[in-house]
Amino acid sequence: MAAIDTASALATPPRVMPSNWKMFLAVFGPGLVVMLADTDAGSIITAAQSGIQWGYQLLLLQLLLIPILYIVQELTVRLGIFTGKGHGELIRETFGPFWAWVSVAGLGIAAVGALLTEFSGVAGVGALYGIPRWISLALSAGFLLAVVLSGTYRRVERVAIALGLFELAFFFVAWEAHPDGHAVLHGLAHMPLGNRSYIYLVAANIGAVIMPWMIFYQQSAVADKKLRPEHYAFARVDTALGAVLAQAVMAAVLIATAATIGRTHPHTSLNTIGEIANALTPFLGSNVGRLVFGMGTVGAAMIAAIVVSLAAAWGFGEVTNQKHSLEHHPLEAPWFYGAFTVAVIGGAVVVAVAPDLVALNIGVEVMNALLLPVVLGFLVLLAMKALPPEHRIRGAYAWLVIAVSVLTAGLGVYGGLFGVIAH
Questions:
Q1: Angle between helices 41-54 and 196-209 (to 10 degrees)
Q2: pLDDT bracket for residue 416 (50, 70, 90)
Q3: Is residue 122 a part of any domain in this protein?
Q4: Is the pLDDT higher at 140 or at 325?
Q5: Is residue 406 part of a domain?
Q6: How far apart are the C-alpha atoms of 303 and 284, rounded to whole Å?
Q7: Helices in 129-209 by DSSP H: which ranges?
Q8: 14: Cβ–Cβ under 8 A, 6 or more apart, which residues?
């Protein structure tokens, strides 16, 4: 029966009955938070560039990535609930310290790139309103430190969700762009896979959806929240809803830019949030182009900064076997909170002194795609070895997970290398 349930994990999603809403709301959070963080400042820029340069021809990819995103992140839920351990800790116990450090090294590389992207996004929005870069960076870093250093996991989660809800502004931006229905359908039906520039953006979009810090964060968050086997069905619903919302946000940004900038200036290259917002202003007005788009970006960047820096701190704590929980006070877990503080302050300082790093946004997403073989490889192996036997992936579903992982990682690496050579 366990094998049948595992194989049908996607075909029969769990149902949340009215009488179980209280438990669902208690479980709800890690999946939504990590998915909202997935649509970070770098992802927004990647989606915007996709719409500007290729119209709606990358829109279908956003939809195809929904089940892939769910399959990957559902494994982190399964591992966190049925082992009670974070991703780095589980790799250390299953494969040894060396491979644990390899995994956390990949996490560190991805986290550095992501934090530079998030702080660049916040600084870019501040610049739209004449706020000096150092002020916007100091305020955002101070806010992040105050939230995490003074809160429990549940409080941090609530703040993160509140910030992420600002991303709903992108749906209003897409609506105000008035996309042409016939153009959307035409774009959905055409994917020029022989074009190098197109493949490069395919890789960037894949890298913008599945990132190492997402896997570390959600598994560690599930363990830190102390979710148990009876919560598994609800945690899967949380993850599924988050996957749909994340890709809907990406699609909204793509549609907004394709219907405006992409329609009139399809060869424009915009590398910063400020450039994109200013380019939208002639079409949508200053309120929608700057204010609403800026609100969505700040929300996306701030929730992502929380998730990325916490993922790095959790990963470091798990690999070094130091205390690593938000339920501990800072003095009780100095290495965990110290790693978080260094990540936040370091990211803000680097962006303050080297502002040109914002041009690396799409390159960061491609780098994430190049890391996918290691990230997904560890995840699948853990799902086959570290789980209790009755909860391991097996049968048809195991082959589906392997096929999706190989295809995603292969396309990400191929597209990334192909695009780098082309550029």
A1: 150
A2: low
A3: yes
A4: 140
A5: yes
A6: 26
A7: 133-149, 153-164, 169-176, 181-188, 196-209
A8: 233, 234, 236, 237
